[in-house]
Predict the structure of Cytidine deaminase.
Amino acid sequence: MAMDTELFKQAREAASVAYVPYSHFPVGAALVAKNGLVFQGCNIENASFGLTNCAERTAIFKAVSSGVREFEMIGIYGETEEPISPCGACRQVLTEFCPDEMPVWLFSKAGDVKKTTVGDLLPYHFKNLD
């Protein structure tokens, strides 16, 4: 799945099932594993806001809990005018499981695209020392 249009569709589809009764701000992510599997994630809110989970972390946690730990790219979609960017917690989780050079595609509702990498999103990040 190298085409950003397919990644956009998968991430937008994931956003369509977001549980966002408080913010009304759906976000979706589509994480592509090296084996070709796509793990979709959406944001899931909670009345205790600190317990809310973002779309990117949902996708990564689904993949890891399925035994998959090698990834090719991720697309992130938001109902925003400009392409949406991951929060700090999601950036740190991305650096835990993804190589610095892995592509990150950021999408807006109009289909605007910004391409970056995991390393560019969080320079000087904490890294697993194994």
User: Anything to note?
Assistant: Helices lie at 4-15, 55-65, 88-97, 118-121. The mean pLDDT is 94.
